[in-house]
Amino acid sequence: MKRRLAVLLPFVFLATFAVRAMAQTPPAQTPPAAPRGNAQQTLPPPQETEVWEPVPPVVTPGASYGMPPSDAIVLFDGKNLDEWVTTSDKSPAKWTVHDGVVTVAKRTGNIETKRTFKNYQLHIEWQIPEAITGNDQARGNSGVFLASTGNGDAGYELQVLDSYNNKTYVNGQAASIYKQFIPLANAMRKPGEWQTYDVVWTAPTFNADGSLKTPAYVTAFHNGVLAQDHVQLKGETVFRGKPEYKAYDRAPIKLQDHGDPSPAISFRNIWVRELK
Ligand code: MG
Q1: Where is 17: in which H helix or E strand?
Q2: pLDDT tier at 122, thresholds 50, 70, 90
Q3: Which one of 64, 109, 142, 271 counts the least CB within 10 Å of its CB?
Q4: CA–CA separation, 275 vs 206, rounded Å?
């Protein structure tokens, strides 16, 4: 009997070891659940939606925010008004260049670029004098005409005004599309501080008979805050009456000498990137 036990013991030991070892063996990897139906076969290859051309042009951004990128046309860099003329007679612009900025010379008239544009991205900075006076529309009024379609205020005006604690009709405050679109926010800095506008202008297009083909659109940021979100313009901006479109092809960008009696405002760092 003792001897039988002695013979069986190693088997009992081995059997116990084998059971333990099996218990510790991780189960074989279960294959992933088969997709229902044949969805796996119908999934398109990811390459199908990859687009490799056209490769966007390389544009070197400005050294800091607001500085012109490498493909910008600089319209005013603080030195002179060589890119600008007086709107009314196309004579040299008479506004005052000093200290790297240009200040409206009141009653010398609107000025506009010599170059003409269709679609573009524009950057422009402007400053209401710290000692501004007046109220409502007579307080630092000027304007950026995104397309100048004639003398005076003909065109499409993005309003410039002191809207820091200055009540006026809201479709005529700073960053409005004058009398067409109220800005989405009032992002005005205090008088004396510099303001920025960054604008995307999609010019209207016209049929051969002068009728409107596609309307103008404006997206505009005021001090980096979205003020106009791809608004579809109703026509040129007008002081009185209803806006209407008038056919044109290319147009200058115009700055307004408004003529209100408040101290003159200034502009600086103006550049544009033409868009297709
Ligand atoms: Mg104005």
Answers
A1: helix 2-24
A2: very high
A3: 64
A4: 18
Q: In angstroms, what is the span from residue 19 Cα to ligand 1's centroid?
A: 91
Which structure tokens are listed for 123? 């950057």
Distance CA 209, CA 200 (A): 27
Q: Return the number of other C-beta atoms located less than 10 Å from residue 19's C-beta.
A: 9
Centre of ligand 1 from the C-alpha of residue 62, in Å: 29
Ligand 1 centroid to Cα of residue 216, in Å, is 19
Q: Measured in angstroms, how far is the CA atom of residue 15 from the centroid of ligand 1?
A: 97
271, burial (CB in 10 Å: exposed 0-12, middle 13-18, buried 19+)? buried
CA of 240 to the centre of ligand 1 (A): 13
First-to-last C-alpha distance (Å) of the chain: 102
pLDDT averaged over every residue in the chain: 90
Q: Kindly list the domain boundaries of the chain, sorted by start residue.
A: 73-274
Tell me which long-range contacts 22-25 makes (C-beta under 8 A, separation of at least 24): none
- Model confidence over 154-213: pLDDT tens digits? 999 999 999 999 999 999 999 999 999 999 999 999 999 999 999 999 999 999 999 999
78 within 8 A of 266, measured Cβ to Cβ: no
* Cβ atoms of residues 177 and 216 within 8 Å: no
Centroid of ligand 1 to alpha carbon of 157 (angstroms): 7
In the reported structure, the alpha carbon of residue 64 is separated from the centroid of ligand 1 by a whole-number distance in angstroms of 29
Q: Which residues pair with 148 in a beta bridge?
A: 155
List all residues 6 or more positions away from 79 whose beta carbon is below 8 Å from its beta carbon.
97, 100
**What DSSP line would sit under 157-211, residue for residue?**
EEEE---SS----GGGSTT-BTTTB--S---PPPTTSEEEEEEEEE--EE-TTS-
Picking from 226, 225, 224, 206, the residue whose alpha carbon sits closest to that of residue 216 is: 206
Give the span between the Cα atoms of 87 and 187, in whole angstroms.
30
